[in-house]
């Protein structure tokens, strides 16, 4: 009879999950590369800043539905068009099926820019716990309203999990924070 210790089981689960993420990334890249031969993306906006997530209940080693409070403050933006966007931010709450090994969430977020304009984004996100105890979040979606309507969006964050051992407690990980960015492009 085979027996695995919890660390070995988690290590195997992480490798399996990482393989799925790599395969999905390659598939998305292949699909995305096909139209690029005919058209090119033009960057409309690029921002860097900071992000933070809270999790209720806390994220544990077992997948469960969690309310995720997510916010970002983009303090340095470069944009095309007028008026120029130099900063922006958002705060939302969404539910996702997540664990300390990863998970997914769909969001609709309205970003308010320094110009007073807004951009509403509908996106699907993938959360992955990385070896350095950061939670890497990648959202891909489309601008559905406001400035840049119809454009593609990629939002990423590398949120440090300062308490990785919390994954193995009933309370779980209740918060993460770190650098975040957003890029909005238009296919031309």
Strand content range: over 45%
- Number of contiguous helices: 1
Order of helices and strands: HEEEEEEEE
Contiguous runs where pLDDT drops below 50 for at least 5 residues: 1-36
Mean pLDDT: 82
In total, the number of domains comes to 2
Number of strands: 8
Helix content: 10-25%
Please give the largest β-sheet.
Answer: 8 strands, antiparallel, barrel
Structural class: alpha+beta
Largest beta sheet: strand ordering: 1-2-3-4-5-6-7-8
Distance between the termini: 59 Å
Q: What's the alpha carbon Rg, rounded to whole Å?
A: 18 Å
Any idea what the shape is? Answer: elongated
Can you characterise this structure?
With 188 residues, the chain is of the alpha+beta class. The chain folds into two domains: 1-38; 39-187, no CATH class. Helix content is 16%, strand content 57%. The chain is built from one helix and eight strands. The protein has an eight-stranded antiparallel barrel. The protein is elongated and about 50 Å long. The termini are far apart. Mean pLDDT is 82; it is low at 1-36.
Which short descriptors sum up this protein?
1 helix; 16% helix; disordered N terminus; 188 residues; alpha+beta; 8-stranded antiparallel β-barrel; single chain
Brief summary of the model shown:
With 188 residues, the chain is an alpha+beta fold. The chain has one helix spanning 6-36, and strands spanning 41-59, 64-79, 88-99, 102-113, 118-129, 134-146, 152-160, 173-187. It has two domains: 1-38; 39-187, no CATH class.
